Amino acid sequence: DSGVTQTPKHLITATGQRVTLRCSPRSGDLSVYWYQQSLDQGLQFLIQYYNGEERAKGNILERFSAQQFPDLHSELNLSSLELGDSALYFCASSTYNTGELFFGEGSRLTVL
Amino acid sequence: GESVGLHLPTLSVQEGDNSIINCAYSNSASDYFIWYKQESGKGPQFIIDIRSNMDKRQGQRVTVLLNKTVKHLSLQIAATQPGDSAVYFCAEVNSGGGADGLTFGKGTHLIIQP
Questions:
Q1: Bridge-based pairing state of the strands A107-111 and A53-57
Q2: What percent of chain B has pLDDT over 90?
Q3: CA distance A61 to chain B (A)
Q4: What is the pLDDT of residues B29-51, one digit of tens each?
Q5: For a tag on chain A, would you pick the N or C end, based on fewer CB atoms within 10 A?
Q6: Nearest of A13, A26, A29 to residue A107 by alpha carbon
Q7: Residues 6+ apart with CB under 8 A from A94
Q8: Interface contact B99-A101, CB threshold 8 A
Q9: Taking a C-beta distance cutoff of 8 angstroms, is the pair A15, A82 a contact?
Q10: From A48, A98, A105, residue closest to B97, measured CB to CB
């Protein structure tokens, strides 16, 4: 158990809809990262927050947004969903800004 | 294309044998390299890392070798066990060492034959 909690574990929705994925980082970790994992693209970095502030942005679409709240939990909002958004979405947290990340078990999104 | 990639998508080994998973990288300025293990239905798990000023680092049953001359990274798992079945990702860290500069390869699926 990494200590990172993600909900929901599975989500099925239709094209055009909007969903919110939630992440609680490990106790004490200030950094939260979001990754997308699909079969053809592997693990793609989306965005990082540190203590409530956006720190770095990767290949995140404009239809996607995220935030980190004062209690350090984070949400990833995906809107105007397309079939190609179907993927596993991982949240990770870290104590320091190094490559040692602690990943949650992911949220599997299926867009029909 | 990706700057980090893996030579083989699938590696099948006999239980008890040693496993060697290879990875090529292209950014000679990367600060360090990391191996992650992802078991089915779980998120990636940190295994071991190595700084760019090292060529070898050992952990518990795992050894990572870094050859900067040919930009090659390998993960050796000794006495492979069924619990080692997973997808293994190499990742390089650059852009000052922050995790926002973490680039994952596509992964190698390690299959353990009984």
A1: unpaired
A2: 67
A3: 16
A4: 888 899 999 999 899 999 999 99
A5: N
A6: A13
A7: A29, A31, A33, A100, A101, A102, B99
A8: yes
A9: yes
A10: A98
